Amino acid sequence: MAQGRGSASHVVALGIALLCLLLLCEIGEAAVYTVGDSKGWTFNTVGWPGGKRFRAGDVLVFKYSSTAHNVVAVNAAGYSRCTTPRGSRVYKTGNDRIRLRKGTNYFICNFVGHCQAGMKIAVTAA
What we know:
Elements: H1 8-28, E1 32-34, E2 59-63, E3 71-74, H2 76-81, E4 89-91, E5 95-99, E6 103-108, E7 120-125
Parallel strand pairs: 1-2
Antiparallel strand pairs: 2-5, 3-4, 3-6, 6-7
C-alpha cells in the first residue's frame, strides 16, 4: 500500500522532532535566583549558594535597599580580602540582575564592614 504526504509515520516523526526541540529549549533556559531568597541581599548571605547548582547564563537578582548596600563584582582576592579592586563593577539600583559567567563569580557589598559581616557570595557556574 502506498503512503502519501500525510502518512502516520511522517506525523509521528514530526511529533518526535518537535518534542526534541521543546526539550532543548527548556534545557537552554537560564534559571533566575534571588540572592538570599526572601531575605534578599543582606548580612550573613555568604552561605546562600550552598546546595544550589548554577550554570553559566543563569541570572542572580540582588534585592536590597540602595541607600544601605550595593553589589560589587570582584575577583578572588577582592572576595577573600573584602576589598574592591580597581575596575570592579559596582551595582547600586537595589534590584540588580547579573548574568553568571562560567567559573566562580564573586560578589561583595563594599559598604564599610558589610563584607566582613558575611555580605558576600562566591557562586560557581558550570
